[in-house]
């Protein structure tokens, strides 16, 4: 039986310390404090299997934040000279051995970890050395796709993120718009580009046609809020446009050109207005 996974169990007997349940023909203790109220002999339950402090198999109906062979962002609850202990939603914290850490941790820190069964001890443990567990088969990803990102490495020039807690991608910081991201941040992002070598570039904003549509709507909304006129146009500096619209000048000109062709705005020597 694999620990760190969910199984269907049948309640076999009641004991002072709880219940014994049958899981894949094995008899496993379900402690009373981890059992739902009102269960009876013969009931069928979904349980999570892990080990107690004495390395005995134990069942619980509590729901952990992560199961074996998956990634998660977890908070450090305690630290000692052998490792850190992470809050994963169960009474017994998840152990992150010192040798599996990438740097010094403190209580309250967030870690991006992979959960696996330790071959030597048979216990569930976490590791911050996650790169070897990342799925490299990215055929299901699409350019422009909206995804969930979990930041696991931050440098001055770029940020590496888990994509949907399965793949990896890189977001490149720009000098004019650096993003203040930290390890453990979970944010929404977009697939900007999938290269032939399998590397994935990320964006924190929609890309492609959808991005153009969203930004067009934003400019129209700004015009409405400013009584139908904005003092920006081809004469504006790239810095002014970036500050006001969070766009490059090239992108801004393309968007207002599209709005003009649709008959939604008019050009003036000193700006643009609603038509």
Could you walk me through the main structural features you see in this protein, from its secondary elements to its overall organization?
By secondary structure, the chain is mainly β. It has 4 domains: 5-60, OB fold (Dihydrolipoamide Acetyltransferase, E2P), CATH 2.40.50; 71-131, OB fold (Dihydrolipoamide Acetyltransferase, E2P) (Beta Barrel), CATH 2.40.50; 135-203, OB fold (Dihydrolipoamide Acetyltransferase, E2P) (Beta Barrel), CATH 2.40.50; 208-274, Winged helix-like DNA-binding domain superfamily/Winged helix DNA-binding domain (Arc Repressor Mutant, subunit A, Orthogonal Bundle). The protein has helices at residues 208-225, 238-245, 249-261; strands at residues 5-15, 18-23, 26-31, 44-51, 57-60, 71-79, 83-87, 94-97, 110-117, 124-127, 146-154, 158-163, 167-172, 186-194, 200-203, 229-230, 265-268, 271-274. It has a 5-stranded antiparallel β-sheet, with no helix packed on it. α1 packs across α3 (249-261). The longest helix is centred in the C-terminal third of the chain and has 18 residues, at 208-225. The radius of gyration is 26 Å and the shape is elongated.
β-strand number: 18
**What is the CATH C level class of the largest domain, in words?**
Mainly Beta
User: How far is the N terminus from the C terminus?
Assistant: 69 Å
What global shape is seen? Answer: elongated
How many H/I helical runs?
3
Domain unit count:
4
Mean pLDDT: 90
């Amino acid at each position: 039986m694999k620990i760190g996974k969910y199984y269907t169990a049948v309640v076999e007997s009641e004991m002072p310390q709880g219940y014994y349940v049958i899981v894949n023909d094995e008899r496993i203790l379900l402690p009373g404090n981890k059992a739902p109220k009102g269960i009876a002999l013969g009931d069928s339950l979904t349980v999570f299997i892990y080990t107690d402090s004495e390395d005995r198999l134990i069942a619980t109906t509590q729901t952990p934040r992560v199961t074996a062979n998956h990634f998660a962002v977890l908070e450090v609850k305690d630290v000692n000279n052998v490792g850190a202990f992470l809050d994963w939603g169960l009474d017994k914290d998840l152990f992150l051995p010192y040798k599996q850490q990438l740097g010094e941790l403190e209580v309250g820190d967030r870690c991006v970890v992979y959960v696996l069964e330790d071959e030597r001890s048979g216990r569930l443990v976490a590791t911050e050395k996650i790169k070897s567990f990342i799925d490299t088969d990215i055929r299901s990803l699409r350019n422009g796709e909206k995804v969930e990102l979990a930041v696991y490495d931050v440098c001055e020039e770029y940020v590496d993120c888990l994509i949907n807690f399965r793949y990896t991608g890189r977001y490149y910081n720009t000098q004019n718009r650096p993003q203040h991201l930290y390890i453990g941040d979970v944010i929404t992002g977009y697939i900007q580009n999938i290269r032939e070598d399998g590397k994935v570039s990320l964006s924190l904003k929609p890309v492609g046609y959808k991005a153009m549509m969203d930004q067009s709507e934003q400019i129209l909304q700004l015009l409405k809020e400013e009584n139908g006129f904005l003092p920006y146009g081809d004469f504006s500096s790239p810095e002014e446009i970036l500050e006001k619209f969070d766009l490059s000048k090239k992108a801004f000109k393309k968007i207002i050109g599209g709005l003009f062709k649709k008959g939604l705005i008019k050009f003036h020597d000193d700006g643009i207005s609603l038509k």
